[in-house]
Amino acid sequence: MEHPELGRRERDVLALERRGFAGPGAKERAIREELGLAPVRYYQLLNALLDDARALAFDPVTVNRLRRVRESRRSER
């Protein structure tokens, strides 16, 4: 299913979040190598995507899971 309203980078960020990563640093390495982003910038984009209705329509399972993780982290503070 194509969602032209989400850009390629946004779709790539969500695709990376769907994957599992083994070992420390593997995700950050994938962020740099596959997306060409600094991890800080990646997480800024991801956080904005979690509040974007287009991202929710594109990948509701991933977005809702990440929203739950974000909320549990916020409530721990």
Keywords:
mainly alpha; 0% strand; globular; 77 residues; 5 helices
Can you characterise this structure?
The protein is mainly α and 77 residues long. It has helices at 8-18, 26-35, 39-50, 53-58, 60-76. The protein starts with 7 loop residues before the first helix and ends with a helix.
Fold topology:
Blueprint: H1 8-18, H2 26-35, H3 39-50, H4 53-58, H5 60-76
Helix pairs in contact: 1-2
Q: Report strand %.
A: under 5%
Mean pLDDT score: 92
User: How would you characterize the largest beta sheet?
Assistant: none
Q: Flag low-confidence runs.
A: none
Which structural class matches the secondary elements?
mainly alpha
- Quickly count the helices: 5
C-alpha termini separation: 38 Å
Basic shape: globular
Give the total of beta strands: 0
Radius of gyration: 13 Å
User: What is the element string, with H for helices and E for strands?
Assistant: HHHHH
Query: In percent, how helical is the residue content?
Result: over 70%
